[in-house]
Amino acid sequence: MTTATEVAAGRAAAGLEISGLHKSLGGRTIIDSLDLTVEAGELVSLLGPSGCGKTTTLRMIAGFLTPDAGSIQVGGREVVRLGPERRPSAMVFQNYALWPHMTVAKNVGFPLKLRKLPRKEVADRVDAALALVNLMHHKDSRPARISGGEQQRTALARALVQEPELLLLDEPLSNLDAKLRVKVREDIREIQQRLGITTVVVTHDQEEAMSMSDRIAVMNDGRIEQFSTSVDLYSTPATEFVATFIGSLNRFEGRIEAGRIASGSGVVGIRPEDVRFSADGADDKDGWVPATVERVVPRGHFAELYVKREDAELRAYVTGALPPVGARGHARVEKWLEFEDGKLVRRGSAC
C-alpha cells in the first residue's frame, strides 16, 4: 500500500449478500429472517431506532456474533463460519478503540503488526492510510493530543490499512458535536467514493444516513421495513413507520375528503412542507379551510407554523414573510399519504 491512487486503482470492491439472517438473544428475537443485498462499491446505511437490531446485524456481518440461521456472503464467498480476523472486512467501532499509549501511526499499523508483515510494508501502508485521511501531520501524536474528529479518522485509517473488501462503521459520528459531524461524514463519503469500497454504516441519525448513503435500509423490530434511496423513502414511504421515522409528519386517523380531514378507518400523513397558509382571503373551496396561526417557530432559513383549522391542527413549513400569532386566513393540504393497516396505499394531491 503506497498511495491513495494505487489503492483506488487496485482494489476489487466486493458486494455483500445477506439472506435469511436470524438471531435470538435471551429468548427474544432480535433479527428476524433478514435479507439484504449491498452492491459492490455502494454505501448503505442501516437506520432505525435503538433496539431495532441494526448493530446486531453489523456485528454478525463482522463476525463478532454468530447468527442462529442464515447466510452472509462477501464477494460471493460465504463467511458466516469465519472468525472476524479471517473475514475480508474491517470495522470502525463507535468508541474508536484507540490505544492511548500508542502514537497515531502505531495505532493504525497495529493490525498489520499482528499479521507479522515486514516492517517496510507496514510503514508504507500506514503512511498511505494516514495520507488518505489527511493525518500525516499527526503521525507521531497520541490519541489524547488530537481532536475527536481526528481520532475518528485515525480509527478509519486503521480499518482502511487492512485493505478490506467490506468496510463496517458502527455509529461513527455519535461522539462528535453537530458541526464536526457534518465535516467528518463528508470526509467519510469522499474517501469511500474515491476507493470504491463497499460500506455498511449503522446510525440512528436520519440526516446522517440521508446525506451519506446510496441506499438506506430502515429497520424496525429486527426487520427491514424499506430499502431504497433517501428520496424514495421520504416521498414514497412503504409503511407508516417509515413515513413517521423519516422526516416530519402530520398524522391523523381518517381520510382526506374535499380537502378536509374526515373520519375513516385509515391513516393520513401530511408533510409540513405540503401545507399552505394564506392570509389573503382565499375562498372556502378547493381545499382551502379557515385557519388561525397558533404558534410560530423560527428554524433559520424557514419557519414552522402551527395552524388550527376547523378539522385539525397542522404544522406547516414556510419561508418569506411570517404571519403573526393569531393571524386568520386559510390553510390547504397540497399533498398527502394514505395508509391502510400500516401500508402505503395512495399518494394524494390537491392538484
Automatic annotation (TrEMBL):
Pfam families per the UniProt record, alphabetical: ABC_tran, TOBE_2
TM region positions: none
Domain of life according to the entry: Bacteria
Name of the protein: Spermidine/putrescine transport system ATP-binding protein
Cell membrane among keywords: no
Keywords: ATP-binding, Nucleotide-binding, Transport
InterPro entries for this protein: AAA+_ATPase, ABC_SmlMolc_Importer, ABC_transporter-like_ATP-bd, Mo/tungstate-bd_C_term_dom, P-loop_NTPase, Transp-assoc_OB_typ2
Molecular function, one GO term: ATP binding
Domain ABC transporter: residue ranges: 16-246
SUPFAM superfamilies: MOP-like, P-loop containing nucleoside triphosphate hydrolases
Organism of derivation: Kribbella aluminosa
